[in-house]
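Title: Prediction job returns without error message
Component: structure pipeline
Severity: low
Priority: P3
Assignee: unassigned

Description:
Job completed but the reporter wants confirmation the result is attached to the right record. Sequence as submitted:
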Amino acid sequence: MMATSHTRLAKIIHWSFVGLYLYGIVKQVDDLSLLEDSQLLWFEVGFATLFLVIVLARYFYMRRFETLQGATVPVHIVHRRFARAVHISMYLCLIMLPVTGLMIAGLYSQGYRDATPDESQTVMDIVLDLHGFAADLSYFLIVLHISAAIYSRIKGEGVWSSMVPVFNKEKPTENEIIKKISTFEEGIYDKVSSYLPNRNK
């Protein structure tokens, strides 16, 4: 069990980054021609650079904590590994977003454009596709992350309270339906675990 809550700094980093990510979604450039405005182009470069630096700083700071920090109940090893895989995947997406964004800005400033109807796929098209893929995958993973956090809160595992400042007086659920779902979930983890190499838990 990992009953220790996240530090105040970890919470500030987490929730500040949420705001930065949402801002990035709202102000994203959908039309490449807008980058003809040099001020906008340099703003995008600055924002992408700041985003990348913060993502990397967040990763190196947060890696000291357990993936399911604050759990007040035993956490199955398969659950831990799956949660960690989701977290790492989110970081990879969040790194790929600014990196491809900077590549787009660099290519555009060098005269590269997306393909016309008469052209085959250009380098810019490939980078744009990578950027779009990273964005779409990040949406999916973040929704999965939020859904898992809400489910954990319903079960009363303590993970929610370690990071979220509201509705954080959780206790293990007494709801029989949730208990049955949780038991079924543990059964799945046991089956998956039987196919994994033996490791110390």
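Comment from assignee: result matches the submitted record. The radius of gyration is 21 Å.
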